[in-house]
Amino acid sequence: MVKWRRLRPGELDHELLWLGVSLAAAVIAFVWLQLGLPRPACVIHEATGLPCPGCGTTRCVQHLFAGSFDQAWRLNPLAFLSLIGLGLFDLYAATVLTFKLPRLRIEEVSESGARVFRVVVFTALGLNWLWVLASGV
What we know:
Helix 1 (14-34) crosses helix 5 (77-99) and helix 3 packs antiparallel against helix 4 (69-75). The chain is built from six helices and two strands. It is 67% helix and 6% strand. The N and C termini lie far apart (39 Å). By secondary structure, it is mainly α. The mean pLDDT is 95. It has a two-stranded antiparallel ribbon with strand order 1-2. The longest helix has 25 residues, at 111-135.
């Protein structure tokens, strides 16, 4: 069950934590790319010659920073959607932190709900990998 509620005493402030982590990662990625430092090598691609499900993510980030959303999508749709989702989470987190609003929390997850979630995640990873393989990223 999903609820809006205030943080409980001693509860981990996920919004503050993950907003800080994602903003730090964005700054590091931006500076890295602006300095023209080498892209991280993909161990799977180097070992097998086949792209992994995450191949194209660095170039996807570059295109997102440049505002070229169609190119970012073409390179790695799952990375694109994940980064857009992260941006939306950051907006939510900044809003609830700034205005001290109740937080969105998942209170209970049924076993069947957890199973559906796992199936969706693995299906998305598999379909994304097929996309990356077929597109020759």
